[in-house]
Amino acid sequence: MACTFMATLERYKPHLIMFLTQIGYAIVYFFTEAAFSQGLNPHIYVTYRFCLSACLMFPFAYFLERNSRPNLTFRLFSEFFLLSLIGICSSLNLHFASLKYTSPTFVATLFNTIPSWTFIIAVILRMEVVNVKNPRGMAKILGTLISLAGVTTITLYKGPAVQRLSAAIVHINRHSGSVHENWVKGPILTVASCITWAIWYILQAITLKKYPTQVSLAAWMNGIGGAQSAVFAVCLQHKASAWSIKMFSVNFWSITYSGICSAVFVCLQIWCMKEKGPVFVAMFNSLQTVMVVVLAYLVLGERLYTGRWIPRYHWPILPVVGQGQRAVLQQEPRITL
User: Fold this and answer.
1) pLDDT-derived band at 162, boundaries 50, 70, 90
2) Number of folded domains in the chain?
3) Which residue among 36, 180, 274, 283 is least packed, with the fewest CB closer than 10 Å?
């Protein structure tokens, strides 16, 4: 009995790890939501988060993998630089920039297309084999189409709010910053963020074959990504006061928890990618959205909608958001990583 249980646990260990990883990332949402409501600049948050993560990981990478780590060459360092630029600096900063021009709901919804983009790119690069005559191959194609159709439906489908079961357990005072909606620039930034994330998964799988030490790889990516984000943040935010973080404040705990999560979970994701491939890791992203919505509904008292068709459109598939709806959209949960 015990042997059977251990064998089953070993078989589904990547699934369990990815499930726990998404729970941890879902909790990151609550910390970042509270920090942003206190005025923390998102780009500064990304910089501090990954710089802290790198500082935590480099000692472990040095001592745990010093005998198995390949020699660092200029070509490998260039790949690390590209991975960090695409997966950390570009994807996250594009994600936060898109929130300025669309609604959090729209960004969170398109976030679920990352597994589909990853699958499509993996097929194009022949990293994922699809046999249309095999039931598993047909299931992959059908799942991708259903995912894209579901995202489109959720984007257009709203409805009356579900009655809250109880009052909010935690109250976060959100700042009422203006949203400069642009339904051309916003979706472009959102899709670009999702595609860069999918490319990041693919490139990680390629780099892992040359540099199979996942802790060292994660440390390099977080460190270089933090430095790249610092350059990007300095270009956008020139005030020195914006970089000041008070000890034991909401911003401090948000950066600390997120940095620890990035240090631990990136390593776990790379290990799962090494075992199961990039598509396997990417398909768990949708689970994070579900967890955030459910936890926001139960803990924060966020509104949860049953869905309704929006009859008017400003763009072929994008709804016109009126003043009343805009106020509601600004209160909906954000998916932040």
Assistant:
1) low
2) 1
3) 180
